[in-house]
């Protein structure tokens, strides 16, 4: 039997490279979801990772850090919150094939 | 601070609460996103709080959880105000985590209730704060506007 591929569509999913059940401590929404002010997860609503090892939605932690009472501290551990860059997103790509026999 | 921030966060907390709370904490009412009532009990045998239930009122601003909720004990026929050197007889609580200085947005209604439970559990003094009578008579301020003077930090 000979199969001739006529057409295929690539489908990709992504998620933040963090434990799946982790939520942002400030808004309590999963990291793969958005902060309460955004509609689309991903680049538009990215995460910030502190050197102390705690992660938050960028918009959430900025709301906190701009308060005087925050004193620049991580809400989790009260160490000085310094960012570490973004956690990596892992991508998985699947090929979806339309085959003809 | 966008308005929906507090609403969404409180919605999350409410659905978690409806799936269960730690022992000795019960939701009484959460009819809106401004004011909730919860009952707490002290679970060990501390004679100061034995067989009593205490009612807490939480008030949330639109800046919750960036700003702390206002939390007070409320008195009812079967709900006294617990005796404690940091709790005034009108229900106002002097606890650093509820003030601007000690609050963190990762705290929640549940974690505040648990902190209050443990604040009572660990107490052995059958006392009100110093100056309780004058404070209760004269106080017209909201708890968040009061500059608490911490008389002692040992309790």
From TrEMBL, chain A:
<dbReference type="GO" id="GO:0005680">
    <property type="term" value="C:anaphase-promoting complex"/>
</dbReference>
<dbReference type="InterPro" id="IPR001841">
    <property type="entry name" value="Znf_RING"/>
</dbReference>
<comment type="pathway">
    <text>Protein modification; protein ubiquitination.</text>
</comment>
<keyword id="KW-0863">Zinc-finger</keyword>
<feature type="domain" description="RING-type">
    <location>
        <begin position="35"/>
        <end position="78"/>
    </location>
</feature>
<keyword id="KW-0131">Cell cycle</keyword>
<dbReference type="GO" id="GO:0061630">
    <property type="term" value="F:ubiquitin protein ligase activity"/>
</dbReference>
<keyword id="KW-0132">Cell division</keyword>
<keyword id="KW-0498">Mitosis</keyword>
<keyword id="KW-0479">Metal-binding</keyword>
<dbReference type="InterPro" id="IPR013083">
    <property type="entry name" value="Znf_RING/FYVE/PHD"/>
</dbReference>
<comment type="similarity">
    <text>Belongs to the RING-box family.</text>
</comment>
<keyword id="KW-0833">Ubl conjugation pathway</keyword>
<dbReference type="GO" id="GO:0097602">
    <property type="term" value="F:cullin family protein binding"/>
</dbReference>
<protein>
    <recommendedName>
        <fullName>Anaphase-promoting complex subunit 11</fullName>
    </recommendedName>
</protein>
<dbReference type="InterPro" id="IPR051031">
    <property type="entry name" value="RING-box_E3_Ubiquitin_Ligase"/>
</dbReference>
<keyword id="KW-0862">Zinc</keyword>
<keyword id="KW-0539">Nucleus</keyword>
<dbReference type="GO" id="GO:0031145">
    <property type="term" value="P:anaphase-promoting complex-dependent catabolic process"/>
</dbReference>
<dbReference type="Pfam" id="PF12861">
    <property type="entry name" value="zf-ANAPC11"/>
</dbReference>
<dbReference type="GO" id="GO:0051301">
    <property type="term" value="P:cell division"/>
</dbReference>
<dbReference type="InterPro" id="IPR024991">
    <property type="entry name" value="RING-H2_APC11"/>
</dbReference>
UniProtKB/TrEMBL annotation, chain B:
<keyword id="KW-0833">Ubl conjugation pathway</keyword>
<feature type="domain" description="UBC core">
    <location>
        <begin position="5"/>
        <end position="155"/>
    </location>
</feature>
<dbReference type="InterPro" id="IPR000608">
    <property type="entry name" value="UBC"/>
</dbReference>
<protein>
    <submittedName>
        <fullName>Ubiquitin-conjugating enzyme/RWD-like protein</fullName>
    </submittedName>
</protein>
<dbReference type="Pfam" id="PF00179">
    <property type="entry name" value="UQ_con"/>
</dbReference>
<dbReference type="InterPro" id="IPR016135">
    <property type="entry name" value="UBQ-conjugating_enzyme/RWD"/>
</dbReference>
<dbReference type="InterPro" id="IPR050113">
    <property type="entry name" value="Ub_conjugating_enzyme"/>
</dbReference>
């Amino acid at each position: 039997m000979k199969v001739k591929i006529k057409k295929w569509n690539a489908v990709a999913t992504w998620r933040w490279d963090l434990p799946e059940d982790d939520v942002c401590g400030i808004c309590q929404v999963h990291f793969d979801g958005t902060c309460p002010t955004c509609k689309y997860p991903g680049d538009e609503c990215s995460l910030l990772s502190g050197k102390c090892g705690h992660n938050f939605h960028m918009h959430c932690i900025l709301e906190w850090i701009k308060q005087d009472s925050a004193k620049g501290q991580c809400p989790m551990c009260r160490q000085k919150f310094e960012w570490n860059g973004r956690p990596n997103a892992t991508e998985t790509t699947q090929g979806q094939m339309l085959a003809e026999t | 601070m966008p308005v929906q921030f507090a609403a969404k966060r409180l919605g999350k907390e409410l659905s978690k609460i409806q799936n269960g709370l730690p022992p000795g904490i019960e939701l009484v009412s959460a009819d809106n996103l401004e004011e909730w009532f919860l009952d707490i009990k002290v679970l060990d045998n501390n004679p100061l709080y034995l067989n009593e239930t205490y009612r807490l009122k939480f008030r949330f601003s639109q800046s919750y959880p960036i700003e702390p909720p206002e939390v007070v004990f409320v008195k009812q026929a079967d709900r006294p105000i617990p005796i404690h050197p940091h709790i005034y007889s009108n229900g106002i609580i002097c606890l650093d985590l509820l003030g601007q200085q000690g609050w963190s947005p990762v705290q929640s209604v549940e974690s505040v209730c648990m902190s209050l439970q443990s604040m009572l559990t660990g107490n052995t003094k059958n006392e009100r704060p110093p100056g309780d009578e004058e404070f209760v008579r004269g106080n017209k301020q909201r708890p968040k506007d009061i500059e608490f003077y911490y008389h002692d930090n040992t309790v």
